[in-house]
Automatic annotation (TrEMBL):
Cited CDD domains: TM_PBP2 (cd06261)
Keyword Cell membrane on entry: yes
GO CC annotation, single: plasma membrane
Protein name, UniProt field: ABC transporter permease
Length: 283
């Protein structure tokens, strides 16, 4: 039987959903529609736009920095996705074993995620420049230093968060299946690759989605750690769009870049979800 509270929720569900729906409309849908609209106009404010058709998109695609930023961001997203998920899964696998101090270790690994990207990057800038200073180098000495500096900072910050998701997934694994594998004589390696990982695909799907999209959307850490240096060689897509938008008479071009950026990230995220979800079905 349905309780009185359950009947009330079913009757007035729209009232509970209204605040979230309103926030979605105001915070996402309206700005997105306005952004698409302004990407076809030359403007300095949202009220003085002049329609220019696809000219902003043409100018955006001609920008050599945009192409380089896209390739740099893609490489960064792929490498960080692999590193974060492999290490986070390994830590989660170890911390689901029964030994003392697991709760403390979980808290320690998760703590970097609580620090804001700007603050975290400035701290790491001091650390990395201090280490590289012994070799008369800085984090912006070359794009190689800048790239791996960004990888270190982002991985250090996000591994703990993905670890929590993997731990939740491992704790939800059916115990009878794991016990049956042990009874049948499966080795720890066989259990991991034949049972644990296939059953963990829903968690892997979520973590892969988050790390890929976070890699492409990265702005705070890029801005604070390298600011695109040297000579815009470590400038990622979000920072490139920001610089274009804040350049006088290029607001429309920057808005066109933002729309294309949204489409690219959305397509990549959907393809990744399709691929990993197909593994869930197979599992």
């Amino acid at each position: 039987m349905i309780s009185m509270s359950g009947k009330a929720i079913r009757k007035w569900w729209w009232l509970f959903a209204l605040p979230t729906f309103a926030a979605f409309i105001v915070g996402f849908l309206v700005p997105f529609i306005m952004g698409v609209y302004l990407s076809f106009r030359k403007f300095t404010t949202v009220t003085d736009g002049k329609f220019v058709g696809f000219r902003n998109y043409y100018r955006a695609l001609k920008d050599p920095h945009l192409v380089y930023s896209f390739l740099f961001t893609t490489l960064f997203a792929v490498i960080t996705t692999i590193i974060i998920n492999v290490i986070a899964f390994a830590i989660a696998y170890m911390l689901t074993k029964k030994f003392k101090g697991t709760t403390i270790f979980r808290a320690v690994f998760f703590m970097p995620n609580l620090i804001g990207g700007i603050v975290l990057s400035y701290i790491w800038q001091l650390l990395l420049n201090g280490i590289l200073g012994y070799f008369n180098r800085t984090i912006t000495f070359s794009e190689v230093f800048g790239f791996w500096g960004l990888v270190i900072v982002v991985c250090w910050q996000q591994i703990g968060y993905m670890m929590i998701i993997y731990i939740a997934g491992m704790q939800a694994l059916p115990g009878d299946v794991m016990e049956a594998a042990a009874v049948d004589g499966a080795s720890p390696r066989q259990t991991l690759f034949k049972i644990t990982i296939p059953l963990m695909m829903p968690s892997i799907t979520v973590c892969t989605f988050l790390t890929i999209t976070n890699g492409f959307k990265l702005f705070d850490q890029n801005f604070a750690l390298t600011n695109g240096g040297p000579s815009r060689k470590t400038e990622m897509l979000a920072l490139n769009i920001y610089r274009t938008f804040t350049t006088p008479r290029c607001e429309g071009v920057g808005q066109a870049q933002a729309v294309m950026f949204f489409i690219v990230v959305a397509v990549i995220a959907m393809v990744q979800n399709m691929l990993t979800r197909s593994k869930e079905v197979a599992a």
